[in-house]
Structure formats: structure tokens, C-alpha cells
User: Fold Conserved hypothetical membrane protein Msm_0357 from Methanobrevibacter smithii.
Amino acid sequence: MMCINSVAATCNVMVITDPTGKDPNGAAAGSMSFADNMFQSTFLMSKEHHFAVLSGGTGGSDSRLDSIVDAVASLENNASAASAASIASKYKGARLVVGGPEMGISIGGSFDAYVVTVDGNGSITVTPYSSTSGGIATLQPGQKGAIIHLRNSEGNPLYGTAATVRKETAINIGKMIRDGYPATTIVSEAMGEVANDSGEKYGGGAVNLVSGLSTGDMFTPKDLNESGYPMNEVYSKSCDDCGWSVGYPSSENYEVCPVCNGELTTIYAYEALGNAITVTSDSVSVSVYGSEKPGLASTTKQIVDASVAKYGYDASAIATSINKGINNGLLVGVDHVEPKDINVKKDSKAVGVYYTALNGDKSSPSWDLPVDANLLNILGSIQTAIGVILILLVVFRSRLLKSFQNR
Ligand SMILES: [Zn+2]
Assistant:
């Protein structure tokens, strides 16, 4: 029998900078906490319907999951953000933050939050709302703005800072919206500020509601009952010249870039979060075939990103970069590749890497599913249960682990 400690996401933030839904980085959300097991209490996102549901509060993981499923089901039936968020009050201690670029944002259940609005003339309003006064708080559809919820966890050395940090971060979110930063950048900066100033710092993660990107389990712990990655600490180093990057702790072994000898820049976890959910014009979609070895896909993506940044969409150059990575020991357990093993689609900014030769002529697998088979199985079971396309979120992991154990 697995024992999972109860947990509360103590920071939820959702930002909308483009209520038309056109800007690929115009709506984003994130969660974190001082508590461990943040993977139970983060969020769900519908890629198809562009909404996210963040959860938190003091309820157990099962009631939290039930409240999320309930909210997702109502959203599927075209409920407003406000009515979906109000479902949280049916579950003792639970909190839901529900929103999307065009539907606005609402928070319901147990919360202490600010609603931030920014008008067309640049005037910023931040208004405090608390569940002790009853009801929900809402950022109306069509309005640029944000909702931030923040409380301190028991045992946090910075206990008592939440009220001040909640307000200051809300004001800074308003200023960044006014100054034209995209929602993905604002969520990243807000999470950095909250982590530094309030100590509610363990990820958690974030999603881009417009483009369907998520940090996945970049910051979640490997084992149960541990805290996630501290969002205000160093996460990786990256090369200024070619974009190559490597995570801690192995990055401590690198003083200069092993690909091009360029200088390395230190990246904090909240910045890595922002990079992971922000769509840039040079983002490359990289798919890896032939091996599902842990870490292979992410390292391959870093090498391909770096190669494309430097040499463009050139199969020979990409193959050379990958082979260099193999020779350097960055990639392990795979053979050298040849240019014919690299499938380049410049128009869709996509690169496929085949690590083991297929029999006969290679044919390209479907390009619209750049995820591994295991994840698809998990997503499939969730889709069947809820009837909506949901991109991973780790809130389900505890339930999945339990059901696998019971088999
Ligand atoms: Zn480099």
C-alpha cells in the first residue's frame, strides 16, 4: 500500500495578455508550493479547448482529483470559468482556478487572491478577494489581467510573508501586462518572485494555454513524498552562441560549451519554466524514434536546437552534431547516425531522428504526435474517462501509480 502525504499547492497564478487567443504566448498558468508532492496538485490543460484547471487546498488527493474531474466535465459542457471554479466549494478545503484566453479566469473554493486587471489606457487595478467573504473571484472574459493566489505553508521559514508578496507580485504582474510582456514570461517572472520572497518555491510547473505547451515533469520529484525543484535555484547552463544546454548537476562539469567552446550562461529554474512554455520563432519540434531511453529525447532536442540555431535545417549538420554528442558522452546507448537518419521538415520546423534503422525504406511516422507510446497510453485512459483531450498533467500520477500497483 502506497502512502501519499497530503499536500497543498499554495501558489496558483494565471495570466491573460491576449484575450483574443491569437498570441501563441498570450495565456499561461503555473502552480508551486513549499510542500512536497506538488505533482498531485498542479493542473490539467485541454489542448483542444484551451482551458486549464489548477487545483490546490487542504483536501486529500482523491477529493482534489474528483473536484478537477467535475470541473473538466462541466467545462466540456460549455460551463463558464466562474461556474466551473465554483465547484470547488462542494469539496472541503479544495480550491480551483479555471481559465482560458477567451473565457477569462475564476477562482473558487478556499483562497486568498488578487485579481489584476489592465485596461486599454494602461491603468492597472489590483483587488484582493478572499474565500472568507464567500463566493468566487473572476477576471471577466475579454479583459487583460491575472489572478494570483498565495498562502504560506506550515514549516516554511518565510512563513508570514504571503500577504505582502501576494500584493507585490500582483502589482508587478499588472506592470508587466501593461508593458507588453507575453503571459508566458509573466508567469515565469511571477513564480521567480514568489519563490524568492515567500519561500513557496517548489515546482510544480506551468502551461501555455494557447499553444498547449507544458513543463511536464521538469520540476516534479522523482520519488513520492519529496519536494519538487526549487524555482529560484540554478537549473541549467546554456551556450550563448549555439544554444546547447545541460542540466544540474552534470552542468557543473562544464565551464565552456562542449559543442562550440562558447560561453555558458546560468539559467534559474523559473527562467527554464518560461523557456519551456514560450513559443519562439525558432522553436524546433524534435521527435526521436528507435529508443525510449530516459533522457535521450530531451538531450537530442537540445543538440538539434543548437545545431539548427547555428547551421539551419541541414540533415548533415544535425547528424554531425548528434555524433559529436555521442562521442562526447552526452548521448549514451545509441549508435552514430547518418544524414539519412535525420528527417528534416523545414516548413513545419520539425526534425525527426531515427536512432535505429527501420527495415527497408523508412517512412515517416505521424508528425502530429511527438510523444512517446507510454504517455499516449496514459492520455488515452484519461481521455476515455473524461472525454476531452487533456495534455499530461502530473496530478493524475498518484492515482495512476495506485491503480498500477493494484493490478
Ligand atoms: Zn555552443
